[in-house]
Amino acid sequence: MLVSEEALLERIRSGRLIEGPEYATEKYLEGLKRTLVVSADTELISAPAYFRAAQDAPNINAYISAMGIIQDELGHAHIAYRLLRDLGVDTDALVFERDPKAFKHPYAFDVPLESWVELVVANAFYDRAGFVLLGDVYRSTSYGPWKRALVKVDREENFHLRHGERWMEILAQDPEQKKKLQRAVDWMFVLTLEWFGLPDNLKRHTEQITYGLKGKTNDQLRQEWMSTAVPLCERLGLKVPAHYEPDLGQYVIDVPFPAEFDAERKEWLFDKGPISWDRVLERWKGRGPANEELVKAIQRGYEQIRKGLKA
Questions:
Q1: How many whole angstroms separate alpha carbon 5 and alpha carbon 114?
Q2: Taking the model in full, what pTM does it have?
Q3: For residue 271, what are the contacts with CB-CB under 8 A and spacing of at least 6?
Q4: How far, rounded to the nearest angstrom, does the alpha carbon of residue 114 sit from its chain's CA centroid?
Q5: What angle, 0 to 180 degrees and rounded to 10, lies between the N-to-C axes of helices 60-86 and 26-54?
Q6: Nearest to 79 by CA among 7, 147, 164
């Protein structure tokens, strides 16, 4: 039997964790499932996205490191999908039968990673976003099973972003590789800013804070990401469209944001000025050029087995 809204909020306010559906309300469970699907899809889609770029690894040790990260990501996806299954969600349908455009991962992964340089910047930017977001969930979530599972995830995401940082430091020492790093930073930095979602004044699902599914707002998490990503790039001599403003006590984005993005050319069209978040949502829902390829890479084996069993 589900509890009342009042009993649920009292349990959360007292610091006691929600250990299963019997301690929650339907609204809490809807918010939890929505959050878990985004996390699961993001971890899952990162695996084929990273695998594609890992083919450009400069040596076997680098390739093995990338494979280790990919294995971690699949493990993180498995954790989130398993939690969803425990909540009664049909995860086979969710993973293997959904339309590619219905996946809930960040748009950034729909822009193909095509080189080792882009892969390590993704580790430094995208995995840092994952570390910021899941670190906040780990510290704040009221859902006990996820909080315990994130102990492992949090540490591994930290390793991933350190891998990206280390390789960016190595590549930045070579003038030609540094130019490639800058090109990757130019399009991936702003895509990662988008990763944190709508600004707080436009946020639609506020139950994440109310129910303790996360502790900080989108804008606060965006600032937290910039507080380490911007100094990293500045230390390596890479330009980023953001700076710290002491009078405001926060980082300021120096280009129109959000803006129109040419996914095929991997270029921001800042000259056209800022666009509305409705336009961004349209782009996200339309998905990017790698969306179908990445999802089909995951679904292909399942489809082959299903056809084989019918034969």
A1: 48
A2: 0.94
A3: none
A4: 18
A5: 160
A6: 147
Any idea how long the chain is? 311
Q: Which of left, alpha, beta for 175 (phi over 0: left; psi -120 to 50: alpha)?
A: alpha
What's the CA gap between 244 and 27, in Å, rounded?
Answer: 39
Percent of the chain with pLDDT over 70: 99
pLDDT tens, position by position, 78-103? 999 999 999 999 999 999 999 999 99
Is the bond leading into 258 cis (omega within 30 degrees of zero)? yes
Neighbours of 31 (CB within 10 A): 21
Are 178 and 171 in contact by the 8 Å Cβ rule? The answer is: yes
